[in-house]
Design brief:
This protein is α+β, with helices and mostly antiparallel strands. It has three helices and 18 strands. The strands form three sheets. Strands 3, 4, 5, 6, 8, 9, 10, 11, 12, 13 and 17 form an eleven-stranded mixed beta sheet that branches. Strands 1, 2, 7, 14 and 18 form a five-stranded mixed beta sheet that branches. A two-stranded antiparallel sheet has the order 15-16.
Length: about 260
Amino acid sequence: MKKNILFVGVTLAMLILAGCKKDEEETTDPITETPTYGEMELEMEHVFNDASFALGTSYTNSSGESVTFNTVKYYVSNVKLTKTDGTVWSQPESYYLVDLSASGSNMLHIHDIPTGDYTSVTFTLGVDSTRNVSGAQTGALSVSNGMFWSWNSGYIFAKFEGDSDANVNGFVYHLGGFTGANAAINTATYSFAPALLNVRQDATPVVHMGVNLANIFNGTAGPISVATNADVHMPGAMANMIADNFHSGVELEHIHN
């Protein structure tokens, strides 16, 4: 009798544990055993050092110059998620244009993600080489977005334009270039540790990224002064430097499951 009770108890415990694991991972439909999918939001929140950011607002950069942005546009592409088992999911046709003059463009909707638990997100600031040599395209990559150099056969990865007391014409930074020494594209992986991103059928988690635009003028690549460098319109060393600075200002803040 004791052996039977013990056997039943162990069996129930195993079933409960199996059920819990299945609930946690939720990778297939429990009835049809077909793969299940969910979605998430990648939110880009912009600041200028410790201040919230808005177009048309004056800020002071690291050189003591006033800068007032009237254009902030950049590409986020090739979004990937790494699962707890090490497998990587890559979103097809993964191209987004963040344009701060367009309400809601800072919320990137990532859909058709296999359900499960994920440890990190990877994405690129810019447009990959394949799309750069494929001519003008549609959607976020449409020429109507004003982010394509027809003369240079490639995409502008980021546009930062505005006014400054350091230059009567303000500043204009059009950043691009995808090959060799002129590659201004940046890719990084952001770990959720110690948390996990839980992708489920019945919820939409949010990955919250902070974007510090002050880094454009003083990031990891070094200081940029409007008085000295007010105009960048083509690939080159200065475009790379500003792109690297901008990239250094992007950090994972937190996630909401």
